[in-house]
Amino acid sequence: MTLRTIGLVDYGAGNIASVYRSLHRLGFRCRVSNTPAVFEQTDLLLMPGVGAFPSAMEALQRLELVQYLRDWVSRGKPLVGICLGMQLLADSSTEYGTTAGLGLIPGRVNAIDQSDWHIGWNALEIVNDDPIFKASGGQSFYFNHSYVFNSEPEHRVAVARLESHSLTVAVRRENCIGMQFHPEKSQAAGAALLSNVIEGLCNA
To answer: Where on the phi/psi map is residue 146: left (φ > 0), alpha (ψ -120 to 50), or beta?
Structure first.
């Protein structure tokens, strides 16, 4: 296996350390940065994050990363978003008003219906035939969010059941993948999926 270098996008939204440790345990090299010159030396960009959508987008704008990330994806390079990082891939969010997102995967981020929060372990239900996620169907992953990415069906890879309805928890559009759950906190299942996502996108 080629030793991949992962660029961790540091825009001040936290959760970098646990993702960094998980990637190192899997044998990947990591570069934590908010500088395009550093990202150009990496194979894949991974954007973690916890917190509010508007402040995260403001940080990306301030760091002049919004257009860079769009250009990165348009060049065919792989980008992965985790938790808030997934939501930022959407067209917009209604959290604290309407805020435009990166617009990399069509969809809108809205508050979860019928529940204030989705926290804890839940199983993935694969709804799109994507080889990267296939082995993870039925396995449990750790969630902690109150907003959900409502995507177009063709970009919806996996859902999780909550009460009487389902939530979109994994999306993909070509070389761009979003995961609402935390693979870095999901033990062996999370480690396996994180490795599959990185290698699957880098080999695509």
So the answer is: alpha
Pairing of strands 29-33, 5-9: parallel
Maximum distance among all alpha carbons in the chain?
A: 47
Global pTM reads 0.95
- What separation in angstroms does the CA of 99 have from each of 35, 87, 176? 24, 11, 21
Q: Is 184 a catalytic residue?
A: yes
Question: Rounded distance, CA 101 to CA 24, Å?
Answer: 29
Given the residues 83, 118, 145, 155, the one annotated as active site: 83
What does DSSP assign to residue 136?
T
**Catalytic residue status for 182:** yes
Q: Tell me: the pLDDT tens digits for 35-85?
A: 999 999 999 999 998 889 999 999 999 999 999 999 999 999 999 999 999
Q: CB neighbours of 176 closer than 8 A, spacing ≥ 6?
A: 73, 78, 79, 80, 81, 89, 104, 105
Q: Which residue in the list 155, 165, 184, 199 is annotated as catalytic? A: 184
Question: Active-site residue among 30, 163, 182, 202?
Answer: 182
Residue 31 has pLDDT above 90, yes or no: yes
CA dist 148 and 197 (Å) reads 21
Reported as a single tens digit per residue, the pLDDT across 78-112 is: 999 999 999 999 999 999 999 999 999 999 999 98
